[in-house]
Structure formats: C-alpha cells, structure tokens
Design a protein that fits this description.
The protein has 287 residues and is an alpha/beta fold. 28% of the residues lie in helices and 27% in strands. It has helices at residues 65-73, 95-98, 107-112, 119-124, 140-152, 168-180, 198-213, 251-254, 257-264; strands at 25-36, 39-50, 54-58, 80-85, 88-89, 102-105, 186-190, 219-224, 236-241, 244-250, 268-273, 276-281.
C-alpha cells in the first residue's frame, strides 16, 4: 500500500459539455439515465468533472443525487448513456482495478461498519475494500498511514476506541480518513454533514475546505440537501430535480436564488457570506 499522506479534484463548465482535453476529465457522463422498474432515477444527465474543480451536488430528497454519485463511483451502471471515470470506460474497465482509485463515504457504508471494530482497523480495512479486519495482513507503512490520516483529521486519540463509542461528528471524520486511506484520485462524499450538530458540522466543513484548497488533494464531489453545507473553496455546483439537471457550472453562475428555487420547487432567497451560503423561503406579499 502507498505511504503517501497528502489529502487531491473535479468537472467541466456544465451539463452537456465534453472537455476538449479528455485526459483532464475525472468524471464524464454523457446522456446517462437510470431506471428501476417504472421509476426514472436519472434522466439524460451529462456531467463532466475536471481535475482542478471541487463540486457540490444539490437537490431535494429523491432528486437523484445519491444515484448520480453511485454512477460516478462505478458502483451502479446506467440504463442508457456512457460513463468514463478516471479515463476508463465503465463498460470496459476492470472494476477491481478502478474502485481502489475512488474514495467513498456514505451513510449506507457507515451502517456496514462493525460497531465493535477498532477505529484504526476501520481505516486500515479500506485498503482491501473490507469492512472488518480478518486474515489480511498490513505492513507497518499501512498502519503509519492510517494513524497519520486520523491525526490530520483530529482523530489521533480515537485510534484504539471502537467505532460504536464515537459521536456522529467523530464517525464522519473517521469515515473521511477511511475514504482517503487508498490515496484515491477521486473522493466522493454522500451527505457528509448529515446528522451533525452545528459545531460538528462546522468542524467538518473546515476540514473539507482545507482539502478543497490543497492542490494535491483528490478530485472531490459531495452531495447535500443544504446550501449551508457547501464548504468554502468549492468551485462548481450541480443542481438536480426529479433526476434532471437544473443547472451545472461554476458556483458564481449556478448558486443563485432563481436556480435554487427551480431546484427545490419553491421561491427561495439565497444569500452569500464570503464563501458560504444560506437560504430562506422568499416572503410572499399579500393583497
């Protein structure tokens, strides 16, 4: 396993665009639809993520955000359309070789992590895409990397505790360390701040902002329901509604009251405070 401890990047100028320089594309989705029975989870989505971009994917419950991230992670295949990840066609690549290049953190993965597993082992087992330590062997360099990642994320003192004893905020940071364990080229985070109190949320967002500012960090995309959870330093945003792209591109162009209102289906006022955002329902005038 690699001993690097540096924490790497992400897409294009909007849905429908395909980069002229495909070598710089980390994710390239073209005309992607995902159907499950009669339900359409994604409809004709095109999305290009480049290495020097950091993306947030916003939308209401059921908008298709998690499905989009799963397609981008290579864990589900689209019903129609093409997917290229890290320069590899999803239809042709060896997933056993591709998936270790992608860091992933989500609530569904967290639910699979054993409550009685030592925190250090929760991080270490990512090296073998396992959720519990078994007969596999780890080198000293792997142990050192896991401990260094925990230290960088403020979790050094948690290494010998069990996962069940952690607070929700501590679990989120341990999951981030686990996602970074394989030194991935692409980091995908599904609602990383969900369930956190205000202090834990802000601590995590500061960590993600530092990661976004690091030119050596992996390509990064995260999903959220809330504009308040968009970390400072993120460069691009994609908004989904009912499986379709409402808007995608640089945050200065996409993060606007009109597009947010279209995304969530009600009048909203979006406010920017330095590099952070808040949103409130627009007041309606009576009479």
């Amino acid at each position: 396993m690699t001993a690097a401890v540096d924490l790497p990047s992400v897409v294009g100028d909007g849905a429908g665009d395909v980069s002229a320089d495909d070598a710089d594309d980390v994710i390239r989705l073209s005309g992607v639809s995902v159907r499950r029975g009669e339900a359409s989870l994604l409809r004709d989505v095109s999305w290009t993520v480049r290495g020097d971009e950091r993306w947030v994917v916003l939308g209401a419950n059921g908008a298709g955000k998690t499905t989009l991230l799963q397609v981008a992670a290579g864990t589900i295949r689209p019903t129609t359309g093409s997917v290229d990840i890290l320069g590899e066609s999803l239809d042709e690549t060896d997933l056993d070789e591709l998936l270790p290049r992608i860091g992933w953190a989500s609530a569904s993965l967290a639910d699979r992590l054993p409550a009685d597993e030592r925190v250090l082992d929760v991080v270490l087992t990512a090296s073998y895409a396992a959720v519990r330590r078994g007969a596999e062997r780890y080198d000293d360099v792997d142990d050192a990397r896991a401990r260094e990642l925990l230290s960088q994320l403020g979790c050094r003192a948690l290494a010998e505790r069990t996962f069940a004893t952690l607070s929700e905020g501590e679990r989120k940071r341990v999951q981030l360390a686990r996602a970074l364990m394989t030194d991935p080229e692409l980091l995908l985070l599904d609602e990383p701040a969900a369930g956190l109190d205000l202090g834990a949320r802000e601590a995590l967002l500061r960590t993600l902002s530092r990661l976004a500012a690091d030119p050596a960090a992996p390509t990064l995309a995260l999903v959220s329901h809330h504009v308040e959870e968009v970390p400072a330093g993120f460069t691009h945003a994609l908004m989904l509604r009912a499986g379709e792209v409402v808007a995608a591109g640089p945050v200065a162009e996409v993060m606007r009251s009109a597009t947010l209102s279209a995304c969530f289906g009600l009048p909203l006022r979006l406010h920017r405070h330095a590099d952070r955002y808040t949103a409130r329902a627009a007041l309606l005038r009576l009479g």
